[in-house]
Amino acid sequence: MQLKLKTATLQAMVSKSVKGASLHKAIPITGLMMIELRGKSLILTTTNGFSTLQIIESGVEGQDFFAVVPVELFSKLISKVTTESVMLSLKENGLEVRGNGVYMLDLALDESGNMIRFPEVNMPSGPGDPNVQTDVIETATIKSILSSNKAAVAMTMEIPHLTGYYCQGDKVITTDTFKVCSNAVKSFSSPVLLPAELVELLALASGATINAYREGSRIVFVGSDMILFGRELEGSQDYPVEAVESFLQEEFTQTVGITKTALLSALDRLSLFVSPYDEQGIYLTFAEDHLICHSKRNNSTEQVKYATGSVGSPFICCVDVELLKSQLLAHEAETITLAYGHPKAIRLNSGKITQILSLLEDGTMTSEPKS
Fold it and tell me: For residue 371, what pLDDT is reported?
């Protein structure tokens, strides 16, 4: 069996497909890539043990082809090929790859000496089945979720369900209990908690929309050039939706507009003077027409003029400088509204994005800020 492919086409497919493999040593199949030509559809399949990704290219000429190879070596080799085309040939002792040179890759075989096959993942029966919920999601929504909500996703497994994206109707919520993000975008018609890895893989899709089919906890996403099989994250019933929405409605006594790039630039310089003993904490003083940012030891001070609004009585609070920077970076807008006056948090808002950042309790300055 032989398969001749344009190098650029194969490189584009492989660069996406490799992201679906986790290379987990305890689960050998996560280090493999299945290459299959059926009819005129070339399909590259990888898995991380929880979800399975298929990258598809239609209109590929050739006889049916099947091979399973180590994903890491194959992807690295294909990325370095500079010839116009690549020839894949199935040999008795491996997969021969002809490009700039001739390379032989081991095939993934089972104990009987047969080529390993990925477990079959069946599609839901689709529209019309009362047990299948169908939604159409814009790929722009996925990109918005990743750029805005990702900064508030829990990165550790102390509370597993907080590592996912809670999608419901016209909003997507993420929180790690210390920070919150609510994104007013249309997603699923009924609540679903998506694993972070699944959302990252969805960003690989081309085309304007993705069809989502849900059957129980199983969920399948179908795009113009990919199919992604996975499951919802457990614990959606425990997700603190009501608490988050209640906090988003909390009253903040005053608001000002701030220029994102100016504040980020100031925080970047200020963070050089934040030591590990400060627990990343800095003070924000909302003065009359500008925000004063200063280190706990008050050995560095920056001022940022408000873009809009002014302050009556000064307000001082302590925040984690790195968390504040990550939240600011999640906004596409250049002007962000900062709401303050609450004893436990500040709120950031622009367009469809609303964030809550908890204040640090350590709040004693060594001296007054320099204004």
Answer: 55
In this structure, are residues 179 and 154 in contact, taking their beta carbons and an 8 Å threshold? no
Residue 282 in 3-state DSSP? strand
Instruction: Report DSSP letters for 86-153, one per residue.
Output: EEEEEETTEEEEESSSEEEE---B-TTSPBP-PPP-PPP--TT-TT-EEEEEEHHHHHHHHHHTGGGS
CA–CA gap between residue 368 and residue 363 (Å, rounded) = 12
**Is residue 295 a contact partner of residue 307, using CB atoms and an 8 Å limit?**
no
Q: The pTM is what? A: 0.90
Residue 278 has a pLDDT of 82
pLDDT of the residue at 163: 97
Question: Whose CA is closest to 146, among 165, 170, 168?
Answer: 165
Q: How many helices and strands, by DSSP H and E, does the chain display? A: 7, 24
Unique residue bearing structure tokens 């081991």: 106
pLDDT at 180 over 80: yes
